Input
Amino acid sequence: MFHMLRRSSRLCGPFSSGNSAVAILIISLLIGITGRAATVRPRDPWAFRLILENKTHMLAVALRSDLWCAYNPTNCGLYKVWGGTGAGMVYEGKVWDFSENCSFTTGTNFHIQENTVLSANTTTSIPTGWTASGITTGSTYWTFNGQGSTFTSPVINLTGYDNPLLFFNEHNSGAIHVQVSQDGGATWAQEFDSTQSGNDPQQNIKKLIVSGSNVVIRWIMQQNVTSKAINGIAILGDYRLWSATQNTTTVNVVSDWRGYRFVNVTDSIFMQYNINSQSSGALLAAIEESPEMAAPTGAAMTRTFNVSNLAASTTVSVKLNAPATSETWSIVSGNGTLRRDVGNNTFLDLSNNGTTVVKVTWP
Output
């Protein structure tokens, strides 16, 4: 067979003569193994981990040159989908350019899952619900006017979020003291000083160790600090997308990321994760999920859920829709069901082992 391939070859260039037989044989073997040529993806590698827009450990997947998505391993869910003209990423940060920045997406955002618990950016007034003592508003930041000046948030509900991170920018030298309460300000469960040591603006990022629905944060100007100002206050967290019921009783769950695998390198990718009982740690369901473009063009994608080891009388559910986003979800195949709650949120309920495929389209 080898000699027949060699004599009949008409390839030129680097695959001429004997090299052509090797090339044809390799291609034939690959087609025989896979049954078809591998899917062409717009980037190599087409799935990779990175810090994306202040969220760590993210998994970005380039489905098409104009359709990308990102998964958050922390909550085992779809975080962002973007595409259209100019779709792609700008790579920044320690790994890419030795900077302190984060990589960010380009193009049109179709889907961004909720992650903002609190945001305060307008410094020309005291935000609604906040209390301030010795604070001056301004076009750029809130200024602390003297020792003991305080700026206090309203009550913050962290229920439904994991790994909350507090962000704020500080200006002028000297640290500012931050207190965090989980009982409405009666006591302070977490306290720390900011990182500022010079006059240049500095962004602070601090993981909050508190939880619950009664969180309050307070900034206090300390002794020996003559001038202090802050802006850009935000709390970002990982929204709990997965939930479960057993015999119609709600079960608190934790999602456990187990990694991902490729099919024929570029044909498809499957994220692997478990949904476990928060109290007992028992496995409620093992899931493999695969995102894919729904067609060669258009703002649409599918998500394939393969469910196994589902606990008896258990339904696991994932929130599909993103806030303030116009998107349409439908079942393509399988025995999963779509459900909407009173807030018009869309959930996929999975009550049986097997495969369910859902499709989402954007205008």
